[in-house]
Amino acid sequence: MIFKRASEDDVRKEVEHEQGFLSHLKELRDRLLRSVLAVLILFMALFPFADTIYSVLAEPLMRHMPEGTNMIAIEVASPFLIPVKMVLMLSIFIAVPYLFYQLWSFVAPGLYLHERRLVMPLLASSTVLFFMGVAFAYFLVFPLAFAFFNAVAPTGVEVMTDIGRYLDFVITIFFAFGIAFEVPIATIVLVAAGATTPEKLAKKRAYIIVGAFVVGMLLTPPDIISQTLLALPMWALFEVGILFSKYLLPKHLARGGAGPATGDAEPATEPPVGTWHDDEPGDDEQYRALSDAEMEAELDRSDAEDAGSASDSADDSGGGATGDGDEETKRPSG
After folding, report:
1. Is this model's pTM higher than 0.70 or not?
2. Contact between residue 107 and residue 196 where contact means Cβ atoms under 8 Å apart
3. pLDDT above 50 for 272
């Protein structure tokens, strides 16, 4: 068996690869620690006001409860654990912009210029839309839903809601409406990735409307008010996503290559083969995927170059051996 000794270049490349992988792991650890530290700082700052925060959170329900009734705690540790859980969730909600910033700072160096110009507005808008969904649920959905629930209570039934179950209900609704308000972002991402087009999405509008009501039925309590209040904004935001992807997304991608990159990292200098063709006149930084024939031709060209370089190396080594033999032949025997 013949063992090929690794060259110094191969060893150096392997060491650099390992160092780069470890540096990425170290950066990921630092980003996660910063995120956890931010949530912990917010938790420590908000915990002394846990009672006030819970009172504000329960105000939409308390406003519609019968006079003289209060919320109850049916678990032994609920008076302590429920405020802790509530403050922790609130700390994560408030820290969402900073968490997204840490995520962006970690992935930005690996993105192209046009990707960074697209991802940064999407991250900012997704954060705003999530908080808009939470505000929509608190100020509009909760008053209508709680008024309906208390109005349909049977005669003789005294409404006394458990604080733990109320908090779980509130968190579920907040997440449901926050995620539902991300429909425009999902629409724009699908169109930008080439998975579909605005015209195709518009043709499937009827299915989207039915799907919005099905999602509203699954994510909200079993009442028609909450279901409708979730389905209608999803439908409206779907139309907004189609509008943005149809008129604003092409303009944004067309000017994606102009100007310097935002951030500290430099954009990649060698994009993957068959993705971006900067040398074509009038088609600056437009996406075009290679066809199967073009991909086969590209692979054949790469294999031919590798075979040519290997034959050149073999010729050089053979020529050196021949030269040494000639010298020995010409050397006088005496």
Report:
1. no
2. no
3. no
